[in-house]
Amino acid sequence: MKTLSIAIITLALTAPTAAFAQATQMDGMAMGQSGKETKAAVHQATGVVKNVDAGNGKVTLEHGPVKTLNWPAMTMTFGVKDKGLLDKLRAGQRVQVEFQEQGGSYVITSVK
Ligand SMILES: [Cu+2]
User: Fold this and answer.
1) What's the CATH code, domain 2-111?
2) What are the pLDDT digits (tens) for 2-36?
3) Model-level pTM?
4) Within 10 A of 110 (CB to CB), how many other CB atoms are there?
5) In terms of DSSP bridges, do strands 105-111 and 74-80 run parallel, antiparallel, or are they unpaired?
6) pLDDT per residue over 46-72, tens digit each?
7) What does each C-alpha distance from 32 to 69, 85, 99 come to in angstroms?
8) Which of 16, 29, 79, 95 is spaced 20 to 30 A from 22 at the CA atom?
9) Ligand 1: centre distance to CA 35 (Å)
10) What is the DSSP letter of 20?
């Protein structure tokens, strides 16, 4: 129980930093593409599926570092762009995913 609490606190402290890093990067990108619709960057991660919440379209992933976002390895929850992707995800499975920032959260766009 104590270990779980520490894990949750660590995640809570890490998340805002990750969100800030993302916002900074997105701003830089928008400046370079004035006049055109900004397309969200695609990021890649490998990890292990911890939980699949099919009802809410959410997947919890214990993923490795994501260089494009300056993320350390962590466990976090992603949405899915297409609910059909949930069929490819099972708890305990090792996966490689692509994801994008969408409306302030992160959404898996493909699963390998
Ligand atoms: Cu993460």
Assistant:
1) 2.40.50.320
2) 666 656 555 555 555 555 555 544 544 444 444 45
3) 0.66
4) 15
5) parallel
6) 999 999 999 999 999 999 999 999 999
7) 18, 32, 21
8) 95
9) 31
10) H
